[in-house]
Amino acid sequence: MTARWFRPMSDAELAEAAVDLFRREFDRGPDGVWAAPGRVNLIGEHVDYAGGLCLPIALPHSTAAAVSPRSDGLIRLRSTDADRWDGRLEDVGPGRPAGWAAYAAGVIWALRENGLLTDDFGGVDVAFVSAVPIGAGLSSSAALECSLALALAPEADRAKLAAACVRTENEVALAPTGGMDQAAALLATEGHALLLDSASSSVSQVPFDPEGLTLLVVDTRAPHRLVDGAYGDRRAAVELAAQRLGVGSLRELADLGSDGTDAVRSLQDDVLRRRARHVISEIARVRHAVRALHSGDFGELGRLLYASHLSLSCDFEVSCAELDNAVESTLIAGALGARMTGGGFGGSAIALIPPERVDEAIETVRSRADERGLTEPAFAMVTASPPARRLI
Ligand code: ADP
Ligand code: MG
């Protein structure tokens, strides 16, 4: 049996597929086609709500939006991955509509709320085609939002577009996410990871070109689990730990170095102590990773990836059998490092691995998943790719 892959589409393939869908659905051609990528976070997980740092790259997998404006107040949305949705501009607002249309129509609402779209905006027809796996923790939602946001307000400042897309996700789709996904989709650049500081909302580019190594993404395709409470629970623990330690956010302690680590040790409650230890140590690991990338030390980056995984698995307790299998199996096969990426409990993992070890790594992940009765994973080899852009 051959391995299951999720392949990127080239810009030309994406544009053609989006134009085809648009023509089929709307009996005319689009005015243009825009695209935005998914992302993987190299390191810096579950620290955004503690004012931490993260380091995503844009994926070669993108979502394309073929778009034409209307003048009658209608919004018509099509996607190869979802049911048709037709509505009116006034149908869109906080918490509505439900379902996938929230992520697309919500962009129009958020752009208007944030003053990036004029009041005389008259509606739009959109056809989406995506190469980003949906719900795999690779940020198909932000890819969808950002492709449309750039189409509707191509001249706007990209950081402002990202903020509007975060509002879409938080206030219309009612998904509690930080700003990493949208920042990566709009602001990451080819050959670089994006260092994002949640405390200041500042971003900078860090070279990411692991020459001679492959970054393998493993989409575990783990079944959806009822873990809705887990994100809120972890967030509450991180906030309570900060409160007990008398700081506004754990970032303040992370910035103190070993004094911050000592302060965390003073927490009496074992669970709170472990949650806080993850946050403080993860922020330190992002800083080390940035230094390792600047000096091209991928051995060190690999060690940091695995340390991050152990911290997420043991201290923060957000991993699962599928993610642990992806990490352990790639390490057994010779990866320099590997970790779960994204919120956890499923989704995807990454491994930094010599190219001649990739086949063995994939086979090891697959056979051990099979032995354990886990879903067959899917794979992609990725590089730090371009951000949102106009295709035609
Ligand atoms: P992720 O962003 O990690 O893929 P999310 O749960 O944040 O997972 O977002 C997935 C949701 O985004 C889907 O359930 C759907 O509502 C919407 N979505 C993303 N991409 C598409 C698409 N191409 N077509 C339709 N809906 C999409
Ligand atoms: Mg998402």
Overall helicity: 40-55%
Query: What is the end-to-end distance?
Result: 39 Å
Heteromolecules bound = adenosine-5'-diphosphate, magnesium ion
The side-by-side strand order for the widest beta sheet comes to: 6-5-7-4-2-14
Average of pLDDT: 97
The biggest beta sheet is recorded as: 6 strands, mixed
Poorly predicted parts? none
Family: Belongs to the GHMP kinase family. GalK subfamily.
GO molecular function: ATP binding; galactokinase activity; metal ion binding
Organism: Rhodococcus spongiicola
Keywords: ATP-binding, Carbohydrate metabolism, Galactose metabolism, Kinase, Magnesium, Metal-binding, Nucleotide-binding, Transferase
Key structural traits:
392 residues, alpha+beta, Ribosomal Protein S5, domain 2, Alpha-Beta Plaits, 2 domains, 6-stranded mixed β-sheet, 5-stranded mixed β-sheet, 14 strands, binds adenosine-5'-diphosphate, binds magnesium ion
Question: How does the SSE layout of this entry go?
Answer:
Layout: E1 4-5, H1 11-26, E2 32-41, E3 53-54, E4 56-69, E5 74-79, E6 82-88, H2 101-113, E7 123-130, H3 140-152, H4 158-172, H5 180-187, E8 192-197, E9 202-207, E10 214-219, H6 228-244, H7 250-254, H8 258-265, H9 270-294, H10 298-315, H11 321-332, E11 337-341, E12 348-353, H12 358-371, E13 378-382, E14 389-390
Parallel strand pairs: 1-13, 5-7
Antiparallel strand pairs: 2-4, 2-14, 3-8, 4-7, 5-6, 8-9, 10-12, 10-13, 11-12
InterPro entries: Galactokinase, Galactokinase_CS, GalKase_N, GHMP_kinase_C_dom, GHMP_kinase_C_sf, GHMP_kinase_N_dom, GHMP_knse_ATP-bd_CS, Mevalonate/galactokinase
Family: Belongs to the GHMP kinase family. GalK subfamily.
Keywords: ATP-binding, Carbohydrate metabolism, Galactose metabolism, Kinase, Magnesium, Metal-binding, Nucleotide-binding, Transferase
